[in-house]
Description:
It contains eleven helices and eight strands. It has helices at 30-41, 58-61, 67-78, 100-119, 149-159, 176-181, 230-248, 274-291, 310-321, 334-344, 373-385; strands at 9-11, 49-51, 125-128, 165-169, 188-195, 219-224, 252-256, 296-299. The longest helix is centred in the first third of the chain and has 20 residues, at 100-119. It is globular and about 55 Å long.
Amino acid sequence: xxxxxxxxxxxxxxxxxxxxxxxxxxxxxxxxxxxxxxxxxxxxxxxxxxxxxxxxxxxxxxxxxxxxxxxxxxxxxxxxxxxxxxxxxxxxxxxxxxxxxxxxxxxxxxxxxxxxxxxxxxxxxxxxxxxxxxxxxxxxxxxxxxxxxxxxxxxxxxxxxxxxxxxxxxxxxxxxxxxxxxxxxxxxxxxxxxxxxxxxxxxxxxxxxxxxxxxxxxxxxxxxxxxxxxxxxxxxxxxxxxxxxxxxxxxxxxxxxxxxxxxxxxxxxxxxxxxxxxxxxxxxxxxxxxxxxxxxxxxxxxxxxxxxxxxxxxxxxxxxxxxxxxxxxxxxxxxxxxxxxxxxxxxxxxxxxxxxxxxxxxxxxxxxxxxxxxxxxxxxxxxxxxxxxxxxx
Length: 393
């Protein structure tokens, strides 16, 4: 690990917007284009080093993915109509499209490049908001994800010599692919806060999922009841995550910031605001500085309110990483709002807040209510994992 330059990197290649499952699919790449435009509208592109990394090559992809699966993606990329559904390709969630291998490998390459830059000290923080495709499995596509860039970034850190990498996933869906990739590896601590698997895809992420016998307590799952709002979400995060990160002492922190926890998101049932999302982004930044010498790789993820929520949420993430945090009450530049209307015929939001800032919540240290559903979720996670890590539940 070299010394830090301090400057943040924003990983971006315009071609990532070619990650397009077609008209009507929830994962509309306009969300990436509009995020990049909003970053520029606030001048944040001048506060970071914008870097386009090369696509992940086959040897890199094989750090996580099976060779037969990579070949199936390549074949579907050439002939989408012949996609092999046994690999999760050519399905409703993951339709095959021409060039899918190339653009998926390009997104993965941005996350791997972010990890390399942070490990080598070329940047203290690096953001790839096109990444966070956390459902892809070693041998198959799943949940709008072809290659698991988050897992690949972590695997590359291990290959470079990292001995402890922590992964925090606050997407509304369980970070199942990343958990699966490192299930048996005690060098990686995966923590996922998500809507309860009883009510949401992928129906995994139960608190009892705590890692293989070779890595007890290396997987942490906080399964939140549907309807959880800002105060509960922040309470759960702070009741579980900081204590585990402090104990684990990661050399690098990798975080996934799916914006689909939002109350406007059409695919899930949490009731979190943009302001709470920003608060967790700040908390992750602070945890990196407190416990990982500032080394932070931040990724995007889900998020299907593609105009109202995603661009604002990830612009906040870029601002925080750049040490130029955008105040919540900031008015959004009119030029961006006009572009949104021109591209989508939707009215754009006016400010960088949902009007919930600042958010107050009760800390865990003040006690808990065993009859409260949110506190039950926190207790289940703590009781499942904390003793395995030598911590008091």
